[in-house]
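Meet today's protein:

…
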Amino acid sequence: MWNGSIHAIVGGVDPSDDTRHEAEQRTQATNVRYQAALSTESRLPDGCADIVTCSQYLHWMEPEGTFAEVARILRDGGVFAAYDCDWPPVIQWEAEAAYIDLMRRAAAIDGERGFTSGLQEWRKDQHLERMRASGHFRYVREITLHHMETGSAERLVGLAMSQGQVASLLKRGLNETEIGLDRLREIAQRTVGEGPSSWYFSYRVRLGIK
């Protein structure tokens, strides 16, 4: 949110051309803008933002530089909110176990073949302590939000396919059987079905007040 305008301005910063293009295609509001930049070098003015948010991506961002940049662009009293969803959502235990097995298999394949070697990932369960240790926020805490939706077997498979590691393997030509998607689909169809069934999502929000 940039100050100095009668209307609130919402800005999105991302280094990926594909991600920004997708966001622009989905955005209809005229007060939303996107620009190419990094979390450690947003190219935004000092003290220009009331709120800075990071959706399910903080674990890919270099913490020290990111927190310093967030503090630079926040006004005094501004809020940094970084949030992640617990995966998978609470659905049905066999379907959840199959989803977790799929993610472990995808990570193992990725590690064996070295597709994402060189990428550093920071543990999500340490976000809060890193925010505190940065010294850029006067107050830091975590809150948990809960939300209920409905879904089906195919939605669960679709969520799995949208996850970065699985999507990367599919793009590199691996088929569903190699990755384990066929097993997830079979178990989900048997236990979750065509729905709609109730799904329970939990979001962990790490808050920092400048």
